[in-house]
Amino acid sequence: MYIGYSRVSTNEQNTDLQIDALKSSGCEKIFEEKASGAQRDRPELKSALEYARNGDCIVVWKLDRLARSLKQLIETVEDLEMRGIGFKSITESIDTSTSSGRLIFHIFASLAEFERNIIRDRTRAGLDAAKSRGRLGGRPSKLSEKDIEVAKTLLKNHDITVAEVAK
């Protein structure tokens, strides 16, 4: 069974284009959601993933509809694969229920991991170079040493809440 999942980020957007594409791809059941892709807790996605059984295939219009980060995408697809569930992205023409589709997906995943590692290495090298020149990373502190001491003193008083101290 093909199970569709469509998502838009805001209430002002609609899923018509995605729903039409999912229906054209043969989806018998479609889960629809209005939530940011960065949001980890998406009830309709969770329902779609729980609804799928061995031999089914989760179908999305585009990869970024399923997950915002590549790590999240890979984890989700690997979980589906372990459960015997395929994954298909219409726009990117990826179908993990086929050997070539799994290969393409894993190549994408490997390239993405490589890119993350390069970015991490570059960032580390940049921070090391800045540190060797006497620069410290991070943004400047909003509180002075005196402000921090005052806050610590206020926090010792149990009649004053943390929120009040923060203000």
Structural features, described:
The protein is an alpha/beta fold and 167 residues long. The protein has 7 helices and 5 strands. The protein has helices at 16-24, 43-51, 63-66, 70-82, 99-132, 145-156, 162-166; strands at 2-8, 29-34, 57-60, 86-89, 94-95. The chain has a 5-stranded mixed sheet, with helices on both faces. Strand 4 and strand 5 form a beta hairpin. The model has no long low-confidence stretch (mean pLDDT 87).
The overall average pLDDT, rounded, is 87
Query: Strand order of the main beta sheet, please?
Result: 2-1-3-4-5
Number of DSSP helices?
7
Taking the sheet with the most strands, its summary is: 5 strands, mixed
Shape: extended
Distance between the termini: 55 Å
As a whole number of angstroms, the C-alpha radius of gyration is 23 Å
Strand coverage percent: 5-15%
N-to-C order of helices and strands: EHEHEHHEEHHH
The class by helix and strand makeup works out as alpha/beta
Number of strands: 5
Helix fraction by DSSP (H/I, runs of at least 4): 40-55%
Q: Which consecutive residue ranges, at least 5 long each, have pLDDT under 50?
A: none
Give a short overview.
With 167 residues, the protein is an alpha/beta fold.
Write the layout of secondary structure elements.
Blueprint: E1 2-8, H1 16-24, E2 29-34, H2 43-51, E3 57-60, H3 63-66, H4 70-82, E4 86-89, E5 94-95, H5 99-132, H6 145-156, H7 162-166
Parallel strand pairs: 1-2, 1-3, 3-4
Antiparallel strand pairs: 4-5
